Amino acid sequence: MFAFMIPALLLASALFAQPGEDEELSPKDRFFFGGNFSLMFGYITNVEVSPLVGYYIAPRLAAGAGVRFEFYKDKGYYYPYQTTIYGGNIFTRYLLIKNLGEGMIIGLNTGIFAQVEYELLSLEKEYFEPPYTEDGRFLDHAVLVGGGITQPVGRRSAFLITVLYNLNEGIRSPYSNPIIRVGFVF
Prior knowledge:
By secondary structure, this protein is mainly β. It has helices at 2-16, 125-128; strands spanning 31-40, 44-58, 61-74, 81-97, 111-124, 137-152, 158-166, 179-185.
């Protein structure tokens, strides 16, 4: 038991003793913008635009909201179809490790974060709600949890790779677990 506690304490001190914690952000610097963009053409056409806006509550804690629009077309031989998916989300993101490369010979400057998100999407019943007989739309609620890495590319901008799991995944979900997103914030 004691042999397990020492590595756990060392890890905890590394997570919570990051430099630069007391840097104060101006009200203007607390806001950030960004999102994801996806393009795919061919047998399946998929175009997604999902901008977001966020606010740093504390240097490591951010909350925000976003909208999502997706056009999807499948040129399937037996059942070709196209649909649009749209909706919004709210999220909270906590930076667990600000700089993974701190104290290492190589300067990674990569951070690790945890994220919780609630997403509400409007989907067409014909494609997402069995038995596929009704016209119209329905709302799909998703609770997404996970995390990712952030790679700064300037003072205020960064690339993000996020891996999320839909806790409400089912037959009506528009995507399956895990959900992998690549985005940019500034």
